[in-house]
Specification:
The complex is a heterodimer of chains A (101) and B (504). Chain A has no helices and twelve strands. Chain A has 101 residues and is mainly beta. Chain A has one domain. A six-stranded antiparallel beta sheet of chain A has the order 5-1-2-8-7-12, with no helix packed on it. The relative contact order of chain A is 0.27. Among the domains of chain B are: 69 residues, Luciferase, domain 3, CATH 2.30.38; 102 residues, ANL, C-terminal domain (GMP Synthetase, Chain A, domain 3). Chain B is globular. Chain B has 15 helices and 26 strands. Helix content of chain B is 32%, strand content 26%. The chains are: A mainly beta (101), B alpha/beta (504). The interface between A and B is medium-sized, with 20 and 39 residues.
Chain lengths: 101, 504
Amino acid sequence: MELKPGTRWRSTVSPVEVIVVRPPAAAAILLCGGEPMVDVRAGPGASRAGGETTDSCVIGGRYYDEPTGLEVLCTKGGSGSLSVEGRALAAKPTKKLPASD
Amino acid sequence: MQTSLLLEMAAEADPDRPILGPAAAPLTNGELLTRARAAAALLAGRSGDKVAFVGLNSPEMVVALFASALAGKAFAPLNYRLNDDALRALLARAAPATAVVDDEMLPRVQGVPGLDIVPRSTFALANAQGEDGGPTCACSPSDAAVLLFTSGTTGEPKTAVLRHHHLTAYVTSTVDFLGSDAGEATLVSVPPYHIAGISAALTGVYSGRRLVQLPAFTPEDWVQTARDEKITHAMVVPTMLGRILDLLEKGGKALPDLRLLAYGGGRMPAPVIERVLGRLPHVDFVNAYGLTETSSTVCLLSPQDHRDAIGSTDPAVRRRLASVGRPLPAVELEIRGPGGQRLSAGDVGEVYVRGPQIAGEYLHRTTLSGDGWFPTNDSGWVDEAGYLFLEGRLDDVIVRGGENISPGEIEDVLRGHPAVVDVAVVGAPDEQWGEKIAAFVVCRGPAPDPAALQAWVRSRLRSTKTPEAWVFRDELPYNETGKLLRRVLKQDLADAATSPASAA
C-alpha cells in the first residue's frame, strides 16, 4: 500500500474509512482492527470479521503516528483502532481556530 | 480529498443537523446531500467540464458548488455585476460549459456560443424533486474544484484555479469536524464569486454551522437578518463593516446573538476597528488575511490579539490592531527582498506563503516556485513576534526618484487628520522624479488647504513621502467587494495630464 496524501483506505473489519493527510516517512502498512486496510475502490469480498475491535475510529477525527509522521482523517467511523508498525495511532487534539469566513 | 466528501461526511455523521437557510425552514445535511446528488445527475448530462454560476447568493449556489464536485466539473461563479459585454466575454472564455443563471439575469447571457444554460428555478426544482442519484464523484483530488476570476483591480482579470486538495486542506486544517455548537449560524454576505463565499460554504458544512445567506449586501438587511436569525458568526469586508457600524450608531440597534465577526479582504482603517470594538464589546473580532489564490485565509489576528492590542500601552503591541496577525498553523510565511533573499523582522518586502492550501495557479500558468512558495504580490513586514503588517499591493508602490514609497502609510497618516474621511494615494507620472505622489481626498465639510495637509504628512513622515498633487473628491471608486480601484484614479490622473485643461 502506498500511503500517499489524498489516498483513501477502508477497513476490512468494520465500516471505517480514512484519507491520508500526511504520508509516512517510509513505506508502512496501515491496519484497522489488526487487519491491513484496503483501497476504498477495491470491491467487497475482502472484508472479514474478527481482529481487534475494542476501540473505535471517529468520523472527522485525525489520527497520527509520531515516529513515521503518518496522519490520517477518518471519513467513516466504526469499530477497530488504527495502527501502524504495531503502534496504535493517537487521536490528534483539536486546535480550534477562530472562524475567519 | 474532494470538496464533496466534506458534505458526505457531515451527512453521514449528522444527517438531521440544519445547515442551510433560515431557522424556520432550513435544509439539513442529509437534504443538502440529496439535492447535491440530484443536481450532479442533472449536471453530468449537460455540456462542458465547468459549471458557471451567474446569480446572487442562494441555496442553489451551495448545491451547485457540491454538485459540481460530485459531477466531476469545476464550479465557476461569475461576477454578475460586470456589464453585459464583460459578463458574456467571461462566459465565452468558460465555454464549453453549463451555466446556472438567476432567472432575472437570463436575458444578459444569451447568445454565447457553447453555453448550455439552466435557469436557476429549473435547477432548484430538479434538485428538490430529483431522486437521490447516489454518489457520482469520479473526480480526483487534483482536479480543478473552483475557478475564480480575480478582481483585476490592477489589470486584466485572471482565472485562478483552486483544486480539490487545496480547498479541503484549508477546511480540514482550520475547522474541527462538526465542531460547532447547535444554534450557531453564519451570515454570508460576500457574493458567490468571492473566495470567502466559497470557503464559508465549505467550512460551514464541515463544522456544522448553519449558513444563512444574504442575496446581496445592504447594511439594513445585514443587521435585520443578524437579529432575526440569531446570527452568531459573520465575515464582512471593510466597507461593509463601516456601513454596518454607521447604521448601528444611527439606529441604536444591538446584535445580542453575535459572538464573532471576522473582517478581511482589504485594508481596515484603524479608527473603524477601534469604533467597532467599542460599539460591540461582547463580540470577538478576527482580522483575516487571504487571497483567492491561497484558498482564503492564511493569516489571522485572533480575538485575544485584538484584546491585547487595545488594552496595551506598549506601542509595539498596540499597533498590532493594524496587523493581519500570524500565519495559520499549516501555512509558512516569509518576507523576501527584490533579489529573492529572505528579510528579517521589520524589513519591508514581498509576502510569500507556502502550504497545502496554497494554489497560486492561474489557467495554464502556475506562479508557485519549485519548492511551493507563492509570491502574493503584497508588500509587507513582520514584527519581532511574527505579526504581519501589510503595506499594499506591490504594483501600487510608488517609485519616486528611485525611492520605493508605499501608499498605505501615507494614507494611514492622512486618515488621522480630523477633516479627512477617506483617502487614496497613488503615483502620478512626473518628468523629474519618474513618479510623484498624488492624494485623492474625501473630506468632511470644506476641503482644507493642501498646504495644511502637506504639513500634517511632513511632520509625521518625511518630505519625500509628502503628496505633491491633491485632488478632492466626494467619494472614491471601490468595487463591490470593497477593493479600492487605484487604476481608475491613476487613469484619471493620466487623462488630466494629457488634457489641455489639466485639473490635477
